[in-house]
Amino acid sequence: MRIPAHSVCTAIRDDIVAGVHERGSRLTEELLARRYGVSRVPVREALRTLEAEGFVVTRRHAGACVAEPTEQEAADLLEMRLLLEPLGASRAAQRRTEAHLKVLRGLVRLGQERARQGNSEDLRSLGGWFHETLAQASGSPALASTLTQLRHKIAWMYATEGPPDPVEYWAEHGSIVDAVGRGDGDRARAVTALHTERASAAHRLRLVPGGERAGRTDRVRNSQHPVNTPSLRH
Predict the structure, then answer these.
(1) Rounded distance, CA 153 to CA 17, Å?
(2) What's the per-residue H, E or C state across 25-52?
(3) Which residues pair with 63 in a beta bridge?
(4) Do residues 21 and 27 touch, judged by C-beta distance below 8 A?
(5) Half-sphere exposure of residue 79, counting CA atoms within 13 Å on the CB side?
(6) How far is CA 67 from CA 44, 71, 200, 219, in A?
(7) Which of 82, 108, 160, 192 is deepest in the core (most CB within 10 A)?
(8) Tell me: the pLDDT tens digits for 22-56?
(9) Helical spans, DSSP H, in 27-140
(10) Most distant CA atoms of the chain, gap in Å
(11) Torsion angle of C-alpha atoms 71, 72, 76, 78, degrees rounded to 10
(12) Is the overall model pTM greater than 0.70, yes or no?
């Protein structure tokens, strides 16, 4: 059975974000195919997609490599999100469906419950699902796709600290959903802008120490990560 290229792409991207494939390291089709348990064809297609997204670059005499973004490029991502997240919320207020609203309200209730319990690991996942759903509710596939890519890249380039007050943090999510539910685009934009700005303050740029490149190829070669397993995030 041929594994879809988009599944391979997701697996490679997740490993880049997690630091399994480190910045500047080579991504050879043969080793990647072996790691993910697929042929070289979907790997080749996945690398083209990841290059278009900015996770991979092609270098002369080296081939595909994990990109090495600059500090300025990383800062630009936060600025882009500050502009696009509020836009998505404003559009969601006008275009969301009842199904979107039901999911968003459910995530807020669950997030507030976990915040009171102090379960930080669950809160991180719930926050990602919340913003993913909010982007989808904008009714703009292009905007939702861009925001998803931004979140992936920001997670790759930045370490994040948990909010100082998780209960208040999820109360802000609740305010966003209230505005979206009322169809108040201006309010949704303003509340989301404030929320995104506060969240951005908790990001710390990941520093890559020197001398880490030794052994990268062996690290990939000796690991196995079949794509067609339940562990793959979608």
Answers:
(1) 7
(2) CECCHHHHHHHHCCCHHHHHHHHHHHHH
(3) 59
(4) yes
(5) 6
(6) 16, 13, 23, 18
(7) 192
(8) 999 999 999 999 999 999 999 999 999 999 999 99
(9) 29-36, 40-53, 71-95, 98-117, 120-136
(10) 56
(11) 30
(12) yes
